[in-house]
What we know:
Shape: globular
Low-confidence stretches: none
Largest sheet: 5 strands, parallel
Helix content: 40-55%
Number of helices: 9
Bound molecules: adenosine-5'-diphosphate
Mean pLDDT: 94
Strand content: 5-15%
Distance between the termini: 10 Å
Structural class: alpha/beta
Amino acid sequence: MQLVIFGPPGVGKGTLSDSLAEKYKIPHISTGDIFRSEIKSGNSELIQYVEKGLLVPDMIVNKVIENALKQDAYKNGFILDGYPRTTEQAEFLENVLWKLKKKINLVLNLVAPEEAIVERLSARRNCSKCGAVYNLVTMKPKKKDTCDSCGSALAQRKDDAPETVKKRIHVYQQETSPLIDYYKKKKLLVDVDALPKPKEVFNEAVKVIEARIPKK
Ligand code: ADP
C-alpha cells in the first residue's frame, strides 16, 4: 500500500498518518519531520525555508525521498505525509516509484475550512525533545507546558507563529493545491472531512482505504 496524505498545513496529516502507520504496520514518512530533525542536528541551510514557511527547493526534497524509498523498510508500503507538495515533486515521485515497480494507490485529501486550520495551528504545541504533538484546546498535556510521555518542555513550532501560518497557507494555495486536480485526473484522490475528532477522521480514512485498496 502506497498512500499519500494530502492537505493544507495544520489539517492533521501527521496525526492521521501516525495512526494509519500503526494500523497497517507500514512506515510513515514526514518530510517536515525529516527537515526539522536535520535542523536540530545542525543543517542550518534548511532554516531559511522551514522556519519561514517557505518550501524547501524541489531538488533537496526529491533527493531525500528518493533515498528513503529505495530502502528495504519501505518495500511493503509507506505513508507519505507532506510530500509531494509541488507538481514537479509529484512527477518525480511517479518516476522514482516506476523504477521501483510501484505506484501510489490512493491520495487522501484532508479537507477543512481555513479558519479551523488557523485555529489548530495557533493551539499546537510540540515536545522540544521527543516531538510529541499536543493541542491546547483538544489534546491538552496532563501537566501545563510539559510532555506527557517524556516530561520535557512543550514549545510552539517557529512556523506556527501567526504571520508564518498565513505565509504557509498562501504557499499551499499557490504551489500545492494544484495537485488536487493532478491526482483527481488520475482518479487517485478521495476527500476526507478533517473537521471531526482525530478518531473519527481515522475511521473514515480506514473506510476509504478498505474500499479502494483490495486486501491481499
Ligand atoms: P505543515 O504541513 O503543517 O505545513 P510540515 O511539517 O509538513 O508542516 O512541513 C513544515 C515545513 O517543511 C514546510 O513549511 C516546508 O518548509 C518544509 N517541507 C516539508 N515538506 C516539504 C516538501 N515536500 N517540499 C518542500 N518543503 C517541504
